[in-house]
């Protein structure tokens, strides 16, 4: 994939080609392509001159470095206790109904992925979720419907 | 009834301080003088473990290496904690200022702020603030730069040695200790790693002097602390309070009148049941906390709370050492089996033994502290675990 190759090269130019550049490069790939394909991993290994296994090892450790294909918008709903107590199940239910997918799945058109995540640090304003890097707090089923609808039109 | 003991403090978010003035006056002092002032203040790390900050700085300053680093740990991931986000949002210059003072003492030219991936939205503004900060340092003729490093969603990277591994491009797996970071940290060089809040307090101690800080709190827990308050409370949010209050005093102020338990210190902290509110002090002499305070009222099932914590640990365990990797899974499966009636209630005793084993044998703080919430919830709410 020529595009991925180009992207990895650009990122390596920006962040450098040392071991310490690995995570910034992986993050850059996720920002652009929403996940790290095996092609991308091989390409990164070649650019940084380290083994592909090392790249794989690091990439698969971090929950935000997705190695499975994801939608353009990755929704992560906080599943930790404070948000759970404030009704995160209702939020998940609402998103599942809207997008016709379950937690862990991606819509057919590759627009949305729904995931659960651990504490997002918004316990006083739960339930909370991330859509890519954007934070949404004090969610209600109505509010989450509006937010998702907005993204559908993006 | 007025709550006389609970004292609000305004040191952290206090805007009445000038970065340049504080740095200028502090940079004129000798390193020993700075360390002594910090020692005098009694400041202990605000991330949860509570190691005296002055000693970390002192030990690192004594290392002969030419390259040393100061790292700010902003990988705030403990369930129920959100204070560092607020501090970085409101007063980032104080965090940078604290790092610059430490840099002088230990002789560091480079500093790093490791920001958790969940807080990426803070990055553009932090980068702006950093530019302002660097230009202020330039005016003062101070040779020190800070770089922000982004995390990618791993709770374990809040553990200092795992954080260094992550900064170096590896899996966030904790290292063996010793050596401690003061001897071998980032890039295996002597490193001071402090929590966001600790750095702000260090900065404020050099703004106001150790005495003002020392006047607050108790002998074991000096000063004030930022608390992140959530759960069943009419006023969730962030509050800076003087240390030394009991859980009872805390609940009087923040409870909803029906509080049955308070989880102090997040999933890795302790659950305090109502009958122990009166005698439990929030601080290093009682239950320590990195700031997380979660209140539960009588409508909550403590079984669900514990199960949520164990699911959290099971997912966030780095998997490196067996006690933690297998232990977290088995504790969760175990309480589920007891709840369903597949196991007799005495099985809980066996699970407690497992938790105790994890406390002794796990490699890092994550695995060791699972026992804290496990014991304190199972022992105090046994009926809820069984029926």
Strand order of the largest sheet of chain A: 2-1-3-4
* Percent in helix of chain A: 40-55%
Mean of pLDDT of chain A: 97
Oligomer: heterodimer
CATH class of the largest domain in chain B: Alpha Beta
Order of helices and strands of chain A: HHHHEHHEEEH
Strand tally of chain A is: 4
Gyration radius of chain B, to the nearest Å? 21 Å
Low-confidence stretches of chain B: none
List the helices and strands and how they pair.
The complex is a heterodimer of chains A (154) and B (387).
Chain A: H1 2-15, H2 22-33, H3 38-48, H4 52-59, E1 73-78, H5 81-85, H6 88-99, E2 112-117, E3 129-131, E4 134-136, H7 141-152
Parallel strand pairs in A: 1-2
Antiparallel strand pairs in A: 1-3, 3-4
Helix pairs in contact in A: 1-2, 1-3, 2-3, 3-4, 6-7
Chain B: H1 19-27, H2 31-41, H3 53-61, E1 69-74, H4 83-90, H5 92-106, E2 110-115, H6 123-140, E3 145-150, H7 160-167, E4 191-195, H8 196-208, H9 210-214, E5 224-231, E6 237-242, H10 247-254, E7 259-264, E8 270-273, E9 292-297, H11 302-316, H12 322-340, H13 347-361, H14 365-380, H15 382-386
Parallel strand pairs in B: 1-2, 1-4, 2-3, 5-9
Antiparallel strand pairs in B: 5-6, 7-8, 7-9
Helix pairs in contact in B: 1-5, 2-3, 5-6, 5-8, 11-12, 11-14, 12-13, 12-14, 13-14
Task: Outline the structure in words.
The complex is a heterodimer of chains A (154) and B (387). Chain A is an alpha+beta fold and 154 residues long. Chain A has two domains: 2-61, no CATH class; 73-152, Glutaredoxin, CATH 3.40.30.10. Chain A is 48% helix and 12% strand. Chain A has a four-stranded mixed β-sheet, with helices on one face. In chain A, β3 (129-131) and β4 (134-136) form a beta hairpin. In chain A, α2 runs antiparallel to α3 and α3 crosses α4 (52-59). Chain A is elongated, with a radius of gyration of 17 Å. With 387 residues, chain B is α/β, with parallel strands linked by helices. Chain B contains 15 helices and nine strands. The longest helix of chain B is centred in the last third of the chain and has 19 residues, at 322-340. The radius of gyration of chain B is 21 Å and the shape is globular. At the A-B interface, α2 and α5 of A face β5 and α11 of B.
């Amino acid at each position: 994939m020529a595009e991925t190759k180009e992207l990895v090269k650009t990122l390596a130019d920006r962040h450098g080609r040392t071991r310490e550049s690995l995570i910034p490069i992986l993050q850059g790939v996720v920002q652009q392509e929403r996940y790290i394909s095996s092609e991308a991993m091989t390409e990164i290994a070649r650019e940084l001159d380290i083994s592909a296994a090392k790249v794989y090892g690091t990439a698969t450790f971090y929950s935000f470095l997705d190695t499975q294909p994801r939608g353009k918008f990755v929704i992560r709903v906080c599943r930790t206790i404070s948000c759970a107590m404030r009704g995160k199940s209702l939020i998940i239910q609402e998103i599942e109904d809207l997008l016709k997918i379950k937690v862990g799945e991606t819509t057919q058109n590759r627009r949305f992925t729904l995931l659960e995540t651990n504490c997002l640090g918004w316990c006083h304003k739960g339930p909370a979720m991330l859509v890519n890097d954007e934070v949404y707090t004090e969610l209600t089923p109505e509010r989450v419907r509006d937010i998702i609808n907005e993204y559908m039109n993006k | 009834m007025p709550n006389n003991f609970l004292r609000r403090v305004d040191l952290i978010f206090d805007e009445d301080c000038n970065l340049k003035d504080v740095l200028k006056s502090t940079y004129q002092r000798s390193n020993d003088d700075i360390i002594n002032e910090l020692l005098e203040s009694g400041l202990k790390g605000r991330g949860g473990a509570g190691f005296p900050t002055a000693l970390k700085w002192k030990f690192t300053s004594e290392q002969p290496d030419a390259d040393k680093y100061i790292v700010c740990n902003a990988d705030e991931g403990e369930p129920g904690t959100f204070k560092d986000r607020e501090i970085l949002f409101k007063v980032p210059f104080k965090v940078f200022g604290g790092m610059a003072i430490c840099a002088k003492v230990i002789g560091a030219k480079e500093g790093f702020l490791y920001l958790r991936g969940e807080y990426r939205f803070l990055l553009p503004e932090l980068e702006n603030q950093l530019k302002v900060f660097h230009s202020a340092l330039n005016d003062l003729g101070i040779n020190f730069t800070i770089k922000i490093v982004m995390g990618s969603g791993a709770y374990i990277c809040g553990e200092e040695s795992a954080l260094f591994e992550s900064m170096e491009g590896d899996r966030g797996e904790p290292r063996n200790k010793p050596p401690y970071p003061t001897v071998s940290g980032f890039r295996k060089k002597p490193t001071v790693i402090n929590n966001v809040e600790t750095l702000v307090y260090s900065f404020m101690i050099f703004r106001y002097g150790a005495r003002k800080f020392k006047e607050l709190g108790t002998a074991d827990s000096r000063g004030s602390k930022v608390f992140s308050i959530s759960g069943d409370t009419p006023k969730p949010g962030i509050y800076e309070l003087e240390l030394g209050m009991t859980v009872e005093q805390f609940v009087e102020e923040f409870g909803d009148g029906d509080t049955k338990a308070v989880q102090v210190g997040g999933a890795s902290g302790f659950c305090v049941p109502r009958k122990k509110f009166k005698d439990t002090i929030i601080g290093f002499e009682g239950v320590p906390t990195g700031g997380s305070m979660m209140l539960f009222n009588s409508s909550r099932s403590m079984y669900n709370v514990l199960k949520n914590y164990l699911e959290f640990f099971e997912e966030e365990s780095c998997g490196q050492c067996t006690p933690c990797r297998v232990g977290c899974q088995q504790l969760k499966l175990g309480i589920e089996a007891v709840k369903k009636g597949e196991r007799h209630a005495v099985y809980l005793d066996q699970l407690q033994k497992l938790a105790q084993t994890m406390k002794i044998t796990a490699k890092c703080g994550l695995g060791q502290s699972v026992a804290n919430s496990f014991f304190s919830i199972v022992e105090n709410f046994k009926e809820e675990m069984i029926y």
